[in-house]
Amino acid sequence: MRILILCHAFNSLAQRLYVELAERGHALSLEFDVNDAVTREAVGLFGPDLVLAPFLKRAIPEDVWRRVPCLVVHPGPLGDRGPSALDWAVLEGATSNQDWRWGVTLLQANGEMDAGDVWRSVPFAMREAPKASLYRHEVTEAAVAAVLDALERFAAGGRPTPFDPIDQAALGRPRPAMRQADRAIDWSRDTTAAVLRKIRSGDGMPGVRDRIAGREVSLFDAHPAHGLRGEPGALVARCEGAVCRATVDGAVWIGHLKPWDSEISLKLPAELVLGEEAARLPEAQGHRDLWYEEADGVGWLHFPFYNGAMSARQCERLLAAYQAACRRDVRVIVLAGGDDFWSNGIHLNVIEAAGSPADESWRTINAIDDLARAILTTGDRLTVAALAGNAGAGGVFLALAADRVWTRDGVVLNPHYKGMGNLYGSEYWTYVLPRRAGDEHARAVTQARLPMGTAEAHRLGLVDDRFGCGVADFRAEVRDRARALAADPALPLLLDDKRRRRDADEAVKPLAAYRAEELERMRLNFYGFDPSYHVARYNFVFKVPKSRTPLYLARHRG
Q1: Hey, what's the torsion of the CAs at 40, 46, 48, 53, to 10 degrees?
Q2: Burial letters 19-52, b for 16+ CB under 10 A, else e
Q3: Which of 206, 220, 341, 347 is the most exposed place for a label (fewest CB within 10 A)?
Q4: Rounded-to-integer distance, Cα 372 and Cα 429, Å
């Protein structure tokens, strides 16, 4: 089937649907929803059997949806309407019903937003989590199920069903766009649970506008702060980039802020935004963005860094934690990342906010290279990269430094750098990628600039195995497999073979040579005459809308 994907941006849901549909052999092309004329032109050039809209902010032109069936993904249950569906679900759902259910509805576009005939509605149970996390997991899985089912029915000549407002499955209702006033925090009255719901309802966009330490900011990345208290609204502590703010019955950690009274209006670690105000706070424990645990001969490193981005400081902390794990009496080390992301490589927001983005880029890439080298040269432990969440750019190649790479089914990888202003990349990718996929496939992967599903990654050798229908299932099976590896009588032989292969590779070409060659190219990206990386980074972090769709996505324009 010929399917044109029409979207505001190529976000995580659009990417997941792209790889699922490509895997099933559909002919795909994609167009960014720049304006109506561009949409009409894309439909005319590609001649699709249908248009799929997984992420739109505007209505599809009438002459388009009358010409070709247009299927729209709405992140709300049957009957829900409005642009803030998931925001309202997070803000209100858990307060009224602990068994609150939400859903995703696939509609056929007509003249009214979110009111078309229904192809499929897929419910799911809500959990206490940020809106962005629910979108990456429950919403995405429900949307994939709805789209695949609808495509089968469409191919068989099926039709959508008119919405019946008295349908027992109609959990939703029309809702207005959520305003900042709807999620504003009253620190003198709101409980910790209420504050968490409000901040999570706007995470990762648009955040909750507030004042903190006299600064006009938006709040993101909130977690309960157990055992800490203070005057409601007051800052009481800091911990590894986050600040702790008291509520009427406890406190919350706030990991990231977006300042509105600064030239650099970026989402950044809270301590970095608040500067001296944060530095005067006492240090406390409890903000968990990196921790270690062990059991049954297995060491586990968890690093759920916000949005998978890794600053130089975070790379240094993770390296220190990894080296400490290597000194423990464990036989297997699992690099577990986080549930939403494993890693997306270097922290572009922190780099953009630095006095010298070029210098901060150089510092960060060397810090992540140090981490990759430590993993590659560990000879007396077996290492496992266990990807429960997505990974991109340098995060993918950091994972490939491990001896085993296991992914959850449904994870999306972006194993390339070129989209960031033709960035060359490092993390020893010129060694680890060909070692797994071969030279020809390595070139194809890095040049394609397309997202990759776990099935393709497995076929190419980037991934050793893929399993688990959700994060909990994946984590449980990783635990069983890692425990079995640690108890395997053949483990000493596996480690001997690992050391021999590493020594043989080092004799052919030292790791230092790969790093030097990569960094030579990266130095040109950071400090050379071509500003493409700096322009692309600026556009990315400030979310400058695309003026056109790249040709590797808009194949109808090739």
Answers
A1: -60
A2: bbbbeeeeebbbbbbeeeebbeebbebbebbbbb
A3: 206
A4: 10
Single out the residue of 208, 204, 57, 54 nearest to residue 133, CA to CA.
204
Q: Is 253 exposed, middle or buried (0-12, 13-18, 19+ CB in 10 A)?
A: buried
Q: Are 168 and 132 in contact (CB under 8 A)?
A: no
Residue 67 is encoded by which pair of tokens? Answer: 């010409």
Q: In Å, what is the CA distance from 405 to each residue of 256, 385, 387, 420?
A: 30, 5, 8, 25
* Per-residue model confidence (pLDDT) at position 95: 47
**CB atoms < 10 A from the CB of 316, how many?**
17
Quick one: DSSP state of residue 546? Answer: P
Ranges of the chain with pLDDT below 70: 94-99, 166, 168-169
Alpha-carbon gap, residue 451 to 114, rounded angstroms? 28
Element (H or E) spanning 471, and its range?
Answer: helix 471-487
In 3D, which of 281, 288, 313, 301 has the Cα closest to residue 223? 288
| 3-class SS of residue 367 | helix
**Closest C-alpha to 311, from 323, 302, 303:** 303
Please give the Cα distance from 374 to 378 (Å, whole number).
6
Give the number of other Cβ atoms within 10 Å of residue 182's Cβ.
Answer: 17
Residue 540: name the closest of 9, 6, 5 by CA: 9
In this structure, the strands spanning 268-269 and 251-259 are antiparallel
Largest CA distance in the chain: 72
Confidence at residue 168, expressed as pLDDT on a 0 to 100 scale? 61
Cα–Cα distances (Å) from 392 to 341, 353, 416, 514, in that order, read: 9, 21, 7, 21
- Name the 3-class secondary structure at 153: helix
How far apart CA 529 and CA 110 sit, in angstroms, is 50
Q: What is the CA radius of gyration of the chain?
A: 24
| Alpha helices, H only, 327-450 | 348-353, 357-376, 394-399, 429-437, 439-448
Rounded to two decimals, the pTM is: 0.95
Roughly what angle, to the nearest 10 degrees, separates helices 357-376 and 511-527?
160
Among residues 358, 310, 296, the alpha carbon closest in space to that of 538 is found at 358
pLDDT value, residue 169: 66
Chain-centre distance of CA 292, in angstroms? 22
Q: What is the pLDDT at residue 547?
A: 85
Using the structure block, give the residue that is written with the tokens 């992914």: 407
